[in-house]
Amino acid sequence: MRRQALDVFVNRIASHHELRQSEDLRTFLQAEEEDVQSKVSDVVLGKEKPVEESDAEYEKLKRYIFELENHLAEAQKHAYRLVKRHRELGQSLSDFGKAVKLLGASEGNALGKAFSELGMKSEILSVKLQKEATIAERANAFRRQCELAETMKLKEINLDKLMLIRSEKVAEAEREYHEAIEGRE
């Protein structure tokens, strides 16, 4: 079962339009088992560090993602402020509605009735505004929880990767991963 899954994986890699032209892939697929094991052992044991290539398109995409993340964080701050103002507006509208209803109660004629109706409508609108603010707050909290779960998963993957190559950055990655776990709880 595992061997079949590995065969499927290798076939998918070999059929990729860019990877099928890779000299490293060709060497991996054509090399003798002992050569591959020796090379992997050297990398794992730290005798030979893997080559980390950086191409311009990757760097451009990476920079774009970091900028996008900053813009999204800024948008989230603005959304939080907007929700807070929405809630405050709802509370003010509720207070206004109560005051106008009291004013209507003190007036006995048609003007009093109009004030009372205005106060009731104002309180109804206030309830709607506060519900919207609560829904927005819940959506923001859920989004934040998803972001934290994703961050934790990425840190875990990074830690596993660093542990495989026995990098000097393992301790730092472990610390970040444990901080992410503690921050989630």
From TrEMBL:
A Pfam family per the record: PX
MF annotations from Gene Ontology: phosphatidylinositol binding
Gene Ontology annotations for the cellular component aspect, listed alphabetically: endosome; membrane
Domain of life: Eukaryota
Domain PX: 2-31
Family annotation (InterPro entries): AH/BAR_dom_sf, PX_dom, PX_dom_sf
Record protein name field: PX domain-containing protein
Organism of this sequence: Trifolium subterraneum
Biological classification of the source: Eukaryota, Viridiplantae, Streptophyta, Embryophyta, Tracheophyta
